[in-house]
Design goal:
alpha+beta; globular; disordered N terminus; 15% helix; eight-stranded mixed sheet
Length: 917
């Protein structure tokens, strides 16, 4: 059912699957290389000579330590802070050569050179003779027919690789197929390198289209004969179960191949017995083998496939006819040891197994396409992949040659990887602009030639008049917002007080295709300096080392682990609410995190709960993360985070069930606990939970009068008899209490504070935060990167010691949680670098480009007096702000206790400098 226009592309990608009649010479090993930085190799006859510099291929010049060595120091400046730094850099042509012996047995056979992955173009010579036109794919193997040049005997094989930008497809070199921000712009050849000899008859392509509803599969085989006379024979189709090895379908048909032409044969095979479907739960695989036998010629080729359908039913996403929800993250070609993606299955096992361990079923390959090994592992593990053209540009349609390349590259990708069941979604690129006429025509072209997956014109766009609703013809829609509002919390979490009964239903109302939220999260985490020793490959972590050096110079290095932990735990809290809001929205079919793991480029955007190596930072466990990110996830709607004990805690239980099946007669239990003490619990009546979003299952109503002192409580919802449970924190404070000032003088006036301290009094100085110098108070941390987006408030959340007596009546962890929202928003973080002595009681983690000592609560002894400075609002509207009232009460209780014994401040005169003039 694929169109004839793909035949040429399919021929180039033929060796992507096994052809058992082909003999192979492995070309990996020692070659010689010469860099051609002046681009004079062609004019100087480099195409038929050996070079002095040896190099191991597959590999890159970076791997070999060839190129311009890095001369940068680890400083907090650009370019060091933009991304990891190449130890050796080279962009330009490079020539690779070696000799190869062609055996006598290959005489008269077709010989093909295959180079699995290259950036960007290649040209090939045999014994100094150019072997046809060059290749230019960024995402699929480069293949050359060398039959007329490789006769039996010894030959020199020369490959010229040019990694200079060919087309403007990577804005500021940020597209991940061509960038130094994640993958590097490497020069070399990686993956499989081989010469393959074929007989008179060979397979050009095997194309497999499952019919899940009919329990059958359509196999389209394309063969080519180079015989000078017609060749007749038999074509046999066999399908086997990859798990059991059992044959489940077979058929033989006569076949006649005309001289020098391609012949297409289509057969529909019904599978015996119960058809095993492929999805995230049961990633069953089949293998189809097609063999030709006739006229003394034999050829055979196999393809692995899965019985999988993916479709849209209005705004619902269906896999094999069942509603599905994509729990995804991005993969931006981040492989910091090599700077290029692995081409072996082992290299992808950690990526996909870690994603599964953390509850995900989906990866989006942002502006690039991985090699075949990624698809093979995803097929085995049941991961749904979104693949993109290697494009992130704002100039779509401006260059006809670039447009032609996009068409060609898309066809190559479909031909090379299209049979993989994990290849479920395809986008033309990231945030593309401006010409959607070109994009929509291109998307329609790919939909027409290969309807086995879903397509979209762009993964979001900022183009005016587009991006706020799906493009006509889109199969699915990836966006941050619609014309009706945000669909990711990054747009609302800092501006709206915490509520947990919200979703994005209003924004997706009337949506007619499945919507997947675009790049949600992007909550920065302070660099984990403990990962510096992991960088043993081609990239130097000068960005991390610069932060380390700056902290050391400022005497703050010992605080780095706490900075990472506090900011990381806040990020985890925000990711939780992002995910749960998406799950609570009936019209959303998935999310794509940016990111579960770190993004070391674009200004060192360390937004992950895992590092760039897919290792945990220790801020949350995979088990805890799966509580809110699983096929089945208990959910809870409630109005706020902070309560007083004259209120009731009211909540509504829901369940997102995108598991393998419906859950009949499911019992759901709930509890509210103070540590290990259960204060209330209950069970909802058993009911059937359909596959999909199950709303309004039952309510919780717990009077809080029994909570006599300030407490952090845990609300837990669990599906009985299953591993699925989830939990939330709420904070309860005594109602009707007022501050007990005792010996403490509370003032908002700096002059009074100074006088009273001089008198030897205890003073709580709480100026109007709007009159303070410092860093704007925010609840959410830095967005993405303080280097990439410098014009933003720079803090990364609270850091405190929860066991300090100042918090004896204010339950808190060492990091920000939702009860801190009001205090953070009504504050300024004081820059306390100039203060010598005293102690910060509530610190704000600064971003890594500044590494200032920031605080919103600071104590110190000044002469005979004792001073606490609070730069959050402890005065306004306390009857309606129970968190601020409780914080004030806790501070006063501490200051009136015998545990209040602050360290002296040696230079109290600088305190006045915190105030605006």
């Amino acid at each position: 059912m694929r169109k004839s226009l793909l035949i040429v592309v399919l021929a180039m990608c033929a060796a992507c699957a096994e052809q058992k009649n082909g003999a192979v010479i492995d070309l990996s090993g020692t070659w010689t290389v010469a860099l051609d930085s002046t681009d004079t190799g062609l004019s100087n006859g480099w195409e038929n000579r050996a070079f002095a510099q040896p190099i191991q291929l597959p590999g890159t010049t970076d791997d070999a330590g060839i190129g311009t060595p890095c001369a940068l120091d680890a400083k907090l400046e650009k370019p060091q802070l933009l991304h990891l730094t190449r130890k050796h850099s080279y962009i330009g042509p490079a020539w690779y050569t070696r000799e190869v012996e062609i055996p006598e047995a290959w005489n008269g056979r077709r010989i093909e050179l295959g180079l699995e992955r290259v950036v960007w173009t290649t040209d090939v010579w045999v014994d100094g003779v150019k072997a046809g036109p060059g290749e230019r794919s960024l995402t699929t193997p480069h293949r050359y027919d060398l039959t007329q040049w490789l006769t039996p005997g010894r030959h020199r094989l020369t490959v010229r690789v040019d990694n200079r930008k060919k087309y403007d497809l990577s804005v500021r070199n940020l597209a991940h197929a061509y960038t130094d921000d994640t993958q590097i712009i490497w020069n070399g050849i990686v993956g499989e390198m081989s010469l393959t000899a074929f007989g008179t008859v060979r397979f050009v392509a095997i194309d497999v289209t499952p019919d899940v509803g009919g329990g059958q599969v359509e196999v389209a085989a394309t063969l080519k004969s180079v015989s000078p006379v017609p060749v007749g024979g038999e074509l046999r189709f066999e399908v086997t179960d990859r798990t059991t090895g059992k044959q489940v379908a077979a058929r033989s048909v006569p076949c006649r191949l005309e001289p020098g032409s391609e012949t297409g044969m289509n057969e529909t095979l019904r599978l015996d017995g119960d058809v095993k479907l492929w999805n995230e739960f049961t990633p069953n695989l089949y293998e189809v083998t097609v063999a030709f036998d006739g006229g003394g010629n034999r050829a055979e080729r196999s393809e692995v496939f899965g019985m999988r359908s993916i479709a849209a039913d209005g705004n619902r996403l269906l896999v094999n006819g069942t509603p599905a929800f994509m729990r995804g993250t991005l993969e931006c070609c981040i492989f910091p040891l090599t700077g290029y993606p692995p081409t072996d299955p082992e290299g992808w096992e950690k990526v996909f197994r870690t994603a599964k361990e953390w509850g995900l079923n989906h990866l989006r390959f942002h502006s690039w396409c991985p090699p075949k090994a990624a698809f093979e592992v995803a097929d085995r593990l049941g991961m749904y992949l979104q693949v993109e053209l290697p494009v992130w540009t704002l100039n779509i349609g401006a260059d006809s040659l670039a447009t032609a390349f996009m068409y060609e590259e898309g066809e190559r990708m479909l031909a090379a990887y299209g049979n993989h069941p994990s290849f479920c979604f395809m986008s033309l690129g990231n945030e593309l602009q401006p010409d959607f006429g070109v994009l929509n025509a291109m998307r329609s072209h790919f939909q027409r030639i290969d309807p086995r997956r879903l397509y979209t014109a762009s993964s979001f766009t900022f183009e005016k008049g587009h991006g706020v609703w799906p493009e006509p013809g889109d199969d699915f829609y990836v966006t941050q917002w619609t014309k009706k509002g945000w669909v990711r919390g990054q747009g609302v979490f800092d501006s709206e007080s915490p509520r947990f009964d919200r979703d994005f239903s209003q924004a997706v109302g009337g949506m007619q295709v499945p919507l997947i939220t675009h790049e949600i999260g992007q909550y920065a985490v302070y660099p984990d300096l403990a990962e510096i020793p992991k960088y043993t490959g081609v990239l130097e972590p000068l960005n991390f080392k610069a932060v380390e050096n700056d902290l050391k110079a400022k005497g703050l290095l010992q605080k780095a682990p706490a900075y990472t932990e506090a900011s990381g735990r806040l990020a985890a809290i925000l990711y939780k609410e992002e995910i749960e809001r998406a799950l609570k929205t009936a019209g959303i079919s998935g999310f794509q995190l940016l990111d579960l793991h770190d993004f070391p480029g674009q200004g060192t955007a360390l937004v992950g709960l895992l590092d760039a190596f897919w290792d945990s930072k220790g801020v949350i466990t995979a088990e805890r993360f799966r509580n809110f990110c699983s096929p089945v996830t208990p959910l809870l709607r409630f109005a706020k985070a902070a309560y007083t004990n004259d209120e009731h805690f009211l909540a509504e239980i829901e369940v997102s069930n995108y598991g393998e099946k419906a859950l009949p007669g499911q019992v759901v239990g709930w509890s509210v606990a103070d540590g290990g003490t259960v204060l209330a619990e209950g069970t909802l009546p058993a009911r059937d939970l359909a596959v999909g979003y199950n709303a309004a299952l039952g309510g919780i109503d717990v009077p809080l009068a029994g909570v006599e002192t300030a407490k952090a409580l845990t609300v837990r919802v669990k599906l009985d008899g299953t591993p699925y449970e989830n939990s939330w924190s709420i904070w309860v404070y005594p109602a009707g209490i007022g501050p007990q000032f005792g010996e403490v003088v509370y003032t908002r006036d700096f002059g009074e504070a100074r006088r009273r301290v001089a008198e030897g009094r205890k003073v709580l100085f709480n100026p109007d935060w709007r009159k303070l110098k410092g860093v704007e108070g925010k609840f959410v941390p830095v967005f993405w990167s303080p280097v990439h987006f410098p014009a933003q408030a720079g803090s990364m959340g609270v850091l405190c010691d929860p066991d300090h007596p100042v918090f004896a009546a204010f339950p808190t962890a060492m990091h920000s949680d939702w009860q801190w929202w009001d205090l953070c928003k009504r504050s300024v973080a004081m820059v306390t670098d100039s203060i010598r002595g005293g102690t910060p009681l509530v610190e704000m983690v600064d971003n890594f480009t500044n590494n200032r000592r920031l605080a919103t609560l600071y104590e110190g002894r000044v002469g005979k007096g004792e001073l606490v400075i609070a730069s959050f609002d402890l005065q306004s509207d306390l009857d309606d702000r129970p968190v601020a009232r409780q914080m004030l009460c806790s501070i006063l209780a501490y200051m009136n206790s015998d545990r209040f014994d602050p360290e002296p401040i040696a230079n109290p005169e600088v305190i006045g400098e915190l105030m605006k003039q």
